[in-house]
Design goal:
Elements (H helix, E strand, L loop, with lengths): L2 E10 L9 E9 L4 E6 L5 H15 L7 H10 L6 H22 L3 H4 L7 E7 L5 H13 L4 E4 L11 H19 L4 E5 L6 H10 L8 E2 L7 H10 L4 E3 L6 H9 L5 E2 L8 H14 L3 E2 L7 H13 L6 E3 L7 H4 L6 E2 L2 E3 L12 H6 L21
Parallel strand pairs: 4-5, 4-11, 5-6, 6-7, 7-8, 8-9, 9-10
Antiparallel strand pairs: 1-2, 2-3, 4-13, 12-13
C-alpha cells in the first residue's frame, strides 16, 4: 500500500459568530482505496499548517502509510525548524495514518496501541453565561443532560478593564454561583484562558480553594515553565495546562518543574496519536493525569477517544458537543454519547467517516484578528 494523495479542507465559522471555530481536516488517500482522516490543531492560523502539509506532500506521496513513526521523525527532523504549524501538520498526518492502519487491519487504533483500559470516556462540557445567574442555569441544564464535570471561564466579558480586586471578586462570584447550583456531587473546573499575571493567578487560586475545583486551567500564559511552576507551588487547586505545547519534551520539562498535576495535550497539535501516547506515558511516570484538549471537530474528538481508551492515567475528556452544526453533519455517524460519557467505538481506525457532501458545499470565511484592547490602549489576553 502507498500514499497516493492528501486532500485538505478548512472549515471556518462566519466572522460574526460569538464562539468561532477554525478547523483544518485532511484525508490521506492510498492506492488500495483505504482513506484516513486527520485534523490539525493550529486553529489560530490554519492556513499556516495547511501550507506545511502542502509542502510535506512532496515527501509523503508514494510512501508506505504504515511507517507512521518513521514519517514523523523524517519530517520533524527535516531542517530542524520547530513550531506549531509544523507539529500541527504532522499531527493531522499521524492521525490519518493511524486511521489507515486500523482500517487496513480492521481494528480500532486503540487496539494497536495496547488495547482498551476502559469502555467509555468521561466528559466535561463547557457551560456558558455572561453573569453568575446565566452560568448557574446553564450548569443545571448540563447536569440534567447527564454531565458530571463542568468547565467554564469565571470572567466577565470586560474582565481586562476591572480593577485588581474587582477581577478577583468577579471570578469568585461566578464560581460560587455554579457550585451552589450543582452542589458537590458534580465536579467543576475553570479555565483562566491564560488571562492572568502570576500574582493574580495565585490570589485567585487561593480564593477558589473552598469550592474544591477539579482543576484550574491555564492560569497564566504558557511562555514560561518556571512561572507556571511558581504558581503551582503557591496554589492548592490542581493546575491543568499544556494545550499550546507542541512536543513531548515540552511536557517532560513542565512536569519536571512541578508546574501542573494534569497535562492537556492536543492530539492535533502535539504530534498526533503517536506522540500523545508518549506524552501520556511521561505523565504517568509523574503520577499526573491526562485531560486531552479538544475544541475542534469530530475528527479531533475521535482521535482523542482512541488515546483515552488505551492509557491508564486518563482523567476526563473535553467535549464541545457533536449534535449542533456543523459538527453534526461533518461525519456520517458521530460517536455514541451516553449520560456524560462517550462510548469507545469498535469501528476500525479512529472510528468515524467524513460526510463528503458537507465538504463539497462548505465555504470558508477567514476570521479577522480580534485581540482585545484595554481602555488605556494596551493589548490584553483574550
Amino acid at each position: 500500500m502507498r500514499i497516493e494523495g492528501i486532500e485538505c479542507f478548512v472549515v471556518e465559522s462566519p466572522p460574526e459568530q460569538k464562539n468561532p471555530y477554525r478547523w483544518l481536516v485532511i484525508k490521506v488517500h492510498t492506492d488500495k482505496g483505504v482513506v484516513g482522516v486527520g485534523e490539525s490543531g493550529y486553529h489560530g492560523l490554519p492556513d499556516a499548517a495547511l501550507a506545511a502539509i502542502e509542502a510535506q506532500k512532496r515527501y509523503l506521496v508514494g510512501q508506505d502509510p504504515f511507517k507512521i513513526e518513521h514519517h514523523f521523525q523524517y519530517l520533524y527532523r527535516f531542517a530542524h525548524f520547530r513550531g506549531a504549524a509544523i507539529t500541527a501538520s504532522l499531527s493531522a498526518i499521524d492521525i490519518a495514518l493511524w486511521d489507515i492502519l486500523g482500517k487496513a487491519l480492521d481494528m480500532p487504533a486503540y487496539q494497536l496501541l495496547g488495547g482498551k483500559c476502559r469502555d467509555k470516556v468521561r466528559l466535561y462540557i463547557h457551560i456558558r453565561g455572561d453573569t453568575p445567574d446565566e452560568l448557574a442555569k446553564d450548569a443545571q441544564r448540563a447536569v440534567k443532560e447527564g454531565f458530571t464535570v463542568l468547565r467554564f471561564s469565571p470572567f466577565s466579558q470586560k474582565f481586562f478593564d476591572l480593577s485588581y480586586s474587582g477581577l478577583i471578586e468577579d471570578a469568585v462570584k461566578h464560581v460560587a454561583a455554579v457550585r451552589e447550583a450543582v452542589g458537590f456531587g458534580v465536579d467543576i473546573c475553570i479555565d483562566a484562558h491564560r488571562r492572568l499575571t502570576p500574582a493574580e493567578a495565585v490570589v485567585l487560586g487561593s480564593e477558589l480553594e473552598r469550592f474544591r475545583l477539579m482543576f484550574y486551567e491555564d492560569p497564566i500564559r504558557p511562555d514560561s515553565v518556571q512561572s507556571m511552576a511558581e504558581v503551582a507551588k503557591k496554589v492548592k487547586v490542581p493546575i491543568a495546562t499544556g494545550e499550546r505545547l507542541e512536543t513531548m519534551y515540552d511536557f517532560r520539562e513542565l512536569l519536571q518543574a512541578g508546574a501542573c498535576q494534569y497535562v492537556r495535550p492536543d492530539v492535533c497539535l502535539c504530534g498526533g496519536i503517536t506522540q500523545s501516547k508518549k506524552i501520556a506515558a511521561i505523565a504517568e511516570s509523574f503520577n499526573a493525569g491526562v485531560i486531552p484538549h479538544n475544541p475542534l471537530s469530530p475528527v479531533s474528538t475521535a482521535a482523542c477517544v482512541q488515546i483515552d481508551a488505551c492509557i491508564p492515567n486518563f482523567t476526563v475528556q473535553e467535549y464541545t458537543g457533536e449534535n449542533e452544526p456543523p459538527k453534526n453533519v461533518m461525519v456520517k455517524k458521530p460517536l455514541k454519547l451516553e449520560k456524560g460519557y462517550l462510548v469507545v467505538p469498535d469501528a476500525p481506525g479512529i472510528g468515524i467517516e467524513l460526510n463528503d457532501d458537507f465538504f463539497k458545499s462548505h465555504r470558508t470565511t477567514p476570521r479577522p484578528f480580534t485581540t482585545p484592547i484595554r481602555n488605556d490602549g494596551s493589548v490584553a489576553d483574550w
